[in-house]
């Protein structure tokens, strides 16, 4: 079922692999909508409840499923007794398909096979069955009534990360998102350094728990599975569904037009998706399964807890020669995903002796996976608190210490940075925040009952690109003021980040149309595949594919009107001629070769003529042969006379095509730029806190974050992303921690009343500065990821401010008041 126009096979496609720096058309287009703080184009649909989320779709004959979870942390199921359940009015079936109820797994950052363990249990909360009923209420009652007995409830589960640290094992580097690396002699470097520190930090497990719970409405049309689901990356998740169910990839369609957040927990598929698919198949009816909040927290993914060792060696001026970052994180047995805490440690500061080493421990706790800014979000707590501790030890201003340790190039690979704006971020942030007012002496500022302190941290996160495709169609539309609209098609998602809006801006600028003349079709795997929303690369990757499709359309339009692409301008639905064409190097070669070619053709003609005479070819045949050669066929008939060209209406031009539309595709691929240049977004975080002198209560008073992420597509949505990231930092520093019961492995705080996150009263005035930067190596738009950069370092800035306020260094997060008393 193709919901949207799938287009012809031979569709013109502009492809680009990022092997070299490129210019950006955005520097030339007249409208300059890109960058503007345009309000979300989908905002009114969302606030008026008209944007449908997966649980809100309804299909004829639909029934409801509720997952049932294991109540032991390790062991085997002995028996599932469903008699009592099936007696409940409305209950249709208890689905316990042993083939497909396998444990969920997260490899390389995405959940591969979803959950539903049937015989073997690896963690408390693991889904083991689904109860399907005519109503949600009956299914819920049925799920509660299901009797599950286990073979041995006392099998040894590993439920204490700290106690299991001595059993840490090596990581599987082949599937991880980072690698171990040693350069020089780090331990010797540490010993030989004039100044050194060697510290251990602990960060807790955290829950992704996005606002919209994971939900799937599955139905089958013959042998084809269609799923309305909540997911960040549709193309890869579609493949996971196909793999899990043994289907051909083209027999699966995922639809996720609106997604209420994911934070990494929807990078891959979640347990409810396969349960809904197999139940729908068994019943021959559409099945909707929505996970409850506790299930989301217990049976999707968590961010792993970490133990991190940071050791730094430097001279007495603070010039670092040694940087060691070793870590241990946890996951279910057999999993290869580890928390990549040192992703940015490889290149953040100078030092010829370097070491990054990862280890893991196996625990019977919620599956670990990617959570917003996987790696840096907690890695830069350790790195940036240690840098603060070093600055204090050296009696050097923390900003100055970082300035002295700016590497000229990536010290772990000896390749240049595409752009590196850490100093610009620190300077602009410090200025705005008023860093100079800081008294470096801890516990020196008591205001009323509050000890006040300020702190800072650097932020860095790698930038990348993922292969993405998009189609853009220009079509006549009489309902639009300019008689034309552009339709954008890709399976890219908008998880609340603003995809709909920034893609609209990109298309509007490149095609010279107003915002309301652009129509976005996102979130459906029947559309061209994109990398999806994850790793802060969605806007850059998908945006670039849309950019390239628009560029292809511009070239087709230029050709249509007999102009070179570099002499057209699209504005307000008009095509205009601007400037003079500059010959490209290819054109220059062709021009230079023309005389030679003419000469060759003449010689060849003589040869042919002689030959024709010798073999007695008829005169008429000779003539037609010669005509064909001397009057080259004009393949592109120009329908317009542009000798007095001013401008021409796009609607008129597109109206000339048979279907009254013109369609093109764009495809972006990562290339050599990713290997030859270290690409990263940088930032600087500043925080002021108050610590109550009696109760130890900690209040963040204000924060300033300055971030450089290349070209900013929309100052409003980018700023909002950064607000979100910095609020995440508050949660990470002061509140967030999931706690597993050490006796039975149950998640103690499995809802948002017990799992504490910042609420409005916890969030002070936050200032975001978007530092200007132009990076020609990233993609044709010159953008970089920024959302996750704004999380990095945020918690460290708060921790460092707390130290400045009270002189207590807490290396075990979250920093709750009991740790200050
Ligand atoms: Mo993000 S953790 O890549 O969704």
Automatic annotation (TrEMBL):
Gene3D superfamilies, per database record: Aldehyde oxidase/xanthine dehydrogenase, a/b hammerhead, Aldehyde oxidase/xanthine dehydrogenase, molybdopterin binding domain
Domain of life: Bacteria
Record-annotated Aldehyde oxidase/xanthine dehydrogenase a/b hammerhead domain positions: 48-154
Molecular function, one GO term: oxidoreductase activity
Protein's UniProt name: Xanthine dehydrogenase family protein molybdopterin-binding subunit
């Amino acid at each position: 079922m193709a919901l949207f126009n799938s287009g012809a096979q031979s569709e013109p496609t502009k492809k680009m692999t990022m092997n070299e720096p490129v210019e950006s058309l955005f520097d030339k287009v007249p409208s300059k909508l890109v960058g503007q703080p345009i309000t979300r184009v989908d905002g009114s649909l969302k606030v008026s409840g008209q944007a449908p989320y997966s649980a809100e779709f309804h299909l004829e004959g639909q029934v409801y499923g509720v997952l049932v979870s294991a109540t032991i942390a390790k062991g085997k199921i002995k028996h599932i007794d469903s008699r009592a359940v099936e007696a409940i009015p409305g209950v249709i079936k208890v689905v316990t398909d042993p083939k497909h109820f396998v444990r969920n797994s997260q490899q390389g950052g995405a959940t591969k096979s979803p959950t539903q363990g049937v015989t073997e249990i690896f963690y408390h909360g693991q889904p083991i069955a689904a109860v399907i009923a005519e109503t949600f209420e009956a299914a819920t009652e049925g799920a509660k009534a299901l009797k599950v007995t286990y073979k041995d409830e006392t099998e040894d589960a590993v439920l204490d990360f700290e106690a299991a640290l001595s059993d840490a094992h090596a990581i599987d580097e082949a599937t991880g998102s980072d690698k171990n690396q040693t350069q020089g002699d780090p331990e010797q470097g540490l010993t030989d350094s004039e100044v050194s520190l060697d510290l251990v930090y602990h960060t807790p497990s955290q829950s992704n728990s996005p606002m919209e719970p994971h939900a799937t409405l599955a139905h089958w049309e013959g042998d084809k599975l269609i799923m309305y689901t909540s997911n960040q990356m549709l193309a890869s998740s579609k493949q996971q569904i196909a793999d899990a169910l043994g289907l051909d990839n083209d027999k699966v369609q995922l639809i996720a037009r609106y997604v209420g957040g994911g934070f990494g927990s929807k990078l891959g598929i979640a347990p409810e998706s396969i349960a809904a698919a197999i139940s729908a198949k068994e019943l021959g009816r559409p099945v909707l399964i929505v996970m409850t909040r506790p299930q989301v927290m217990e049976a999707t993914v968590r961010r792993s807890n970490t133990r991190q060792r940071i050791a730094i060696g430097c001279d007495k001026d603070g010039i670092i020669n040694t940087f060691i970052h070793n870590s241990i994180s946890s996951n279910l047995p057999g999993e290869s995903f580890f928390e990549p805490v040192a992703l940015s440690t490889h290149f953040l500061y100078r030092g010829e002796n370097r070491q990054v080493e990862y280890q893991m421990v196996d625990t019977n706790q919620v599956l670990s996976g990617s959570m917003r800014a996987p790696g840096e979000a907690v890695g830069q707590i350790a790195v940036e608190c240690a840098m603060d501790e070093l600055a204090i030890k050296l009696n050097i201003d923390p900003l100055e210490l970082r300035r002295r340790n700016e590497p000229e190039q990536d010290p772990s690979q000896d390749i240049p940075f595409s752009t590196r704006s850490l100093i610009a971020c620190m300077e602009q942030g410090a200025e705005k925040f008023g860093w100079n007012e800081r008294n470096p002496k801890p516990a020196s500022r008591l205001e009323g009952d509050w000890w006040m302190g300020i702190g800072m941290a650097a932020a860095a996160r790698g930038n990348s690109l993922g292969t993405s495709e998009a189609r853009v169609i220009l079509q006549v539309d009489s309902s639009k003021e300019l008689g034309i609209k552009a339709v954008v098609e890709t399976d890219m998602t908008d998880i609340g980040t603003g995809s709909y809006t920034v893609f609209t801006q990109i298309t509007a600028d490149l095609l010279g149309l107003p915002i309301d003349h652009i129509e976005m079709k996102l979130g459906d795997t029947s559309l061209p595949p994109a990398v999806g929303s994850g790793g802060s690369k969605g806007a850059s990757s998908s945006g670039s594919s849309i950019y390239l499709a628009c560029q292809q359309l511009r070239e087709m339009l230029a050709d249509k009107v007999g102009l070179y692409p570099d002499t057209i301008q699209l504005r307000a639905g008009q095509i205009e001629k601007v400037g003079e064409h500059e010959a490209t190097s290819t054109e220059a070669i062709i021009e230079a070769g023309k005389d030679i070619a003419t000469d060759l053709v003449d010689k060849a003609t003589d040869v042919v003529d002689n030959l024709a005479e010798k073999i007695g070819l008829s005169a008429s045949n000779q003539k037609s042969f010669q005509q064909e050669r001397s009057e080259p066929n004009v393949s592109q008939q120009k329908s317009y006379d542009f000798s007095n060209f001013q401008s021409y209406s796009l609607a008129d031009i597109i109206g000339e095509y048979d279907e009254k539309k013109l369609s093109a595709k764009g495809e972006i691929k990562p290339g050599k730029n990713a290997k030859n240049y270290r690409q990263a977004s940088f930032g600087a975080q500043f925080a002021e806190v108050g610590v109550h002198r009696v109760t130890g209560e900690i209040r963040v008073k204000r924060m300033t974050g300055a971030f450089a992420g290349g070209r900013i597509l929309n100052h409003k949505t980018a700023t909002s992303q950064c607000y979100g990231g910095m609020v995440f930092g508050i949660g990470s520093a002061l509140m967030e921690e999931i706690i597993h019961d050490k006796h039975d492995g149950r998640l103690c705080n499995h809802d948002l009343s017990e799992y504490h996150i910042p609420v409005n009263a916890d969030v002070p005035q936050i200032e975001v500065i978007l530092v200007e930067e132009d990076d020609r190596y990233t993609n044709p738009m010159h953008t970089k990821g920024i959302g996750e950069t704004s999380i990095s370092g945020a918690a460290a800035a708060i921790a460092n401010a707390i130290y400045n306020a009270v002189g207590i260094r807490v290396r075990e997060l979250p920093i709750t008041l009991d740790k200050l008393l």
